[in-house]
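Apologies for my clumsy wording, but can you show me some protein sequence, whichever is easiest, together with the matching structure tokens, please?
=====
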Amino acid sequence: MSVPVPSPRFAVAAVVLDIEGTTSATGFVVDVLYPYSRSRFAALLSERSGDPEVARALAQVRELTGDPHAGPAAVVKTLNAWLDEDRKATPLKTLQGLIWSEGFARGDLVSHFYDDVVPALRAWHAAGLRLYVYSSGSVAAQRAWFSSTPEGDLLPLVHGLYDTENAGPKQEPESYRRIAESTGLAPGRLLFLSDRPGELDAARTAGWHTVGIRRPGEPFFQQGVGDHAQAGTFDEIRISTTGSTT
């Protein structure tokens, strides 16, 4: 049984944020966003099949299912099955992101953040820390999420966005090495916040600092975060900034 590790003070130049279970409630994503996308997959494929992003996602679904001739109905069935499994398939996340972006733009959706998150993000940004997001949700979904909050547009706080398409799978160390190279920061100047032990392990293997976020009611709360430093809220995390990139 792992022993909880208190969160130490970190000297870093940037914080990289997971969303679901870390900045925001998994329940909101599952209970609000997933049904919203499920109800609109068919319309999206019908109305925007010529869009490059939609066409690429369709091709990826057909490749992953081994059915190069799958029609819209078969693709929707696959997307819904992946949704039921909570599968982190890139084409699913791409199409969800497009749907959610439209929903946020129309005002149908407003994103959720835990109460401790936004004050911490603003304080870290004001202190000179770079803030990045690395989520299974697409970059389009992340952009919509941060720009349509109850606290207004938070996107100006964010230096960059990463997903499974431009960075890679979240439980593979190489993805974190890729992000570090993209930011121009040495791995030891990056701090990753996530509720998922496998992601924290991968980030640490790549040389990053890590803090596991444990919030009651979240899926990974009981499992814990192994031997990673942990925090229940963002205001428990102590960061001293450094401008060094090496």
